[in-house]
Amino acid sequence: MKNRWIAFLTLLVGAISIASCVDPDQTQEVILERDKEAIAKYLLENPISSVKEYSEPIEGFYMFWQVSTDPKINNLLRGDTVTVDYAGKLLSNKYFDTSKEQFAKDQGIYNSTRNYTPLKYPLGYGLTISGFEFAVSLMREGEKATVIFPSRLGYGSQPQGPVPSNSPLIFELELKNVKLGVNHLNP
């Protein structure tokens, strides 16, 4: 009987401990609103020049094309293989990653054990963070764009190397090449 009470008290203390760890300021809705405010402030203080724009303000997603190509070129579909040069940074304008070696050296983020090449992957399989993937899906071969999005479309509450948890992200993208997949053959 005594062991049951000890087990019960242990469970009770554990449950109270877990409940007290839930920070009401860290709900997904609060984090999204905080991210959207930070993104709006960033864009106000750091206007991004563009020839074309796309935005979903409710989601906090903004995209600005510096180079745009013929809109008659095929839309990207799931399974198309894309080759993308990129540079990622935080709202502090501090770069944390890039596919370009010289740029990494210039920004002080060079890693001699890394192979700096454009990122090549099949679109639509979740192989990159969702904000990056969505932005690339809106592009056409030869286009350059800057995208900014909230943390939930990036790494969320999980820190990733130099990227702190709940960090909105900015990516400068160049879609170098597209190899159309089978979905273009069977519309």
Automatic annotation (TrEMBL):
- Record's PROSITE patterns? FKBP_PPIASE, PROKAR_LIPOPROTEIN
Against SUPFAM superfamilies, the record matches this protein to:
FKBP-like
Q: What InterPro entries does UniProt report for this protein, alphabetically?
A: PPIase_dom_sf (IPR046357), PPIase_FKBP_dom (IPR001179)
One example GO MF annotation: peptidyl-prolyl cis-trans isomerase activity
The UniProt keyword set, sorted, is: Isomerase, Rotamase, Signal
Write down the EC number.
5.2.1.8
Show which residues constitute the signal peptide: 1-21
Residues of the PPIase FKBP-type domain = 79-179
Q: Which Gene3D superfamilies match?
A: 3.10.50.40
The highest taxon in the source lineage is Bacteria
Which top EC class is given? isomerase
Reactions the enzyme catalyzes: [protein]-peptidylproline (omega=180) = [protein]-peptidylproline (omega=0)
One Pfam family linked to the record: FKBP_C
Family to which this protein belongs: Belongs to the FKBP-type PPIase family.
Q: What is this protein called?
A: Peptidyl-prolyl cis-trans isomerase
